[in-house]
């Protein structure tokens, strides 16, 4: 059996949960086994996970699991994996998943590959899976040789696919110990898709000359339903909030489309964005290193080009 | 206060990445190695700050061969009081985690620090594994850490936001940007680093459940297609018809 842990921050599933279930279902099909999904705490509409391939959803409704606690969550996942006889456990390579996956692997004496970027290859007893390494500069293939395997899935590595009907939700109980982590508050940006989940990202750098000029970037992002991002110097100068910083020290992302405006493309920046499927670079300097990593480039004055591009997208959308 | 900072040696950020032996080994020829930036800038510096403020001791730990001692001495120059090197050439996060856990188990550390991930294998695995071996709470991607008696006050990065938490010591954390500012070793630090204790410990036997079997380079980009700045309709058309992304 394949067991997927579907994260539900503050009771809601995000895209990463649907991706993990879709992935788990495909792995289960390859192995000819069922895909069951575990949710923890108070969750809204757990049955919908059936649409992405869960044959059954198991929920431990204990409110002790509503908040982040890597130790308690990992213990619950490992206990359920054992009692259900799971041989493959799938998690999201999210902020919470990164705190949990390694713990689950140790509890189950299992090999872990974190941040998988594709489906595994399963042939005979061999189970191999690939992931990006060296900050996107290479791809590694790992063989997991233990009887139980744990894989955490990189965001945007697979597309959520609806393949079935809502699933039966079975409530189960475990004995949650009193945790040693207490969540005091959570602050999130409302109304925008978080960067790691965004399919289109519009990002800008020092070429913008100052924070007062960001209107054209925001207009473009709004037209595309995109999330805005920025380079490190921009965040360090407080032109934009830190949570927008993408790159090696900031957030690593892999959207379908990354539009880089006035960013030269230092290697540290590329390390965080080079897994984007398509990269568009707009820069006045035709020698900017970013053009080497780009699929499409526009050389010229961004203050003229960006509004023109926004208009072109608006026209395109109106004609769709 | 006893603090352990686990440091990794990684190729420099700008290193050219290539592989030997039919893609099974990293080609280290001509590559400069550094302390993993997150271990150095955030984990080590914050541990030193806390130790300096509360009167504690910082131990830097590396699982690696003798050639890693240059990087270990740098940790001592930045402010660690002593260092431990577990004499092995780790091939996986699981192996490294097991070695660290076996060493740390009997040492009574209040906080065990890691960087958020290494810039070579990007696993973000070792901290969680060590925490599980030692039955300790673990918070990854912490961007702020203060102490209030025996409680760590933390902020951690979550998707699209920040979570504020309290964690009982002892605990394990991984450090992200925001926790501290990079510290350049001063002359006194560099001088004293040479005489600070560095002990070498043998590894414990461990069968790795995961093995890297092959490394490949991503397919080269076809090259940038330049679009006239006067024709953004053409760029939109290419994104729609050619890239099929919108």
Overview of this protein structure:
The complex is a heterodimer of chains A (320) and B (246). In chain A, 28% of the residues lie in helices and 26% in strands. Chain A contains eight helices and 16 strands. Chain A has helices at 15-31, 70-84, 95-107, 215-223, 232-236, 267-273, 290-293, 302-319; strands at 2-5, 35-40, 56-60, 88-92, 111-116, 121-123, 126-133, 138-144, 149-153, 169-171, 181-188, 200-204, 227-230, 257-261, 278-283, 296-299. In chain A, the strands form three sheets. Chain A has a seven-stranded parallel beta sheet, with helices on both faces. In chain A, strands 13-12-14-15-16 form a five-stranded parallel beta sheet. In chain A, helix 2 (70-84) crosses helix 3 (95-107) and helix 4 (215-223) packs parallel to helix 8 (302-319). The relative contact order of chain A is 0.12. The model of chain A has no long low-confidence stretch (mean pLDDT 95). Chain B is α/β, with parallel strands linked by helices and 246 residues long. In chain B, strands 11-10-9-12-8-1-6-7-13 form a nine-stranded mixed beta sheet, with helices on both faces. In chain B, strands 2-5 form a two-stranded antiparallel sheet. Chain B has a single domain (2-215), classed as HUPs (Rossmann fold), CATH 3.40.50.620. Chain B is 27% helix and 31% strand. The interface between A and B is large, with 100 and 78 residues. Strand 16 of chain A pairs parallel with strand 15 (225-226) of chain B.
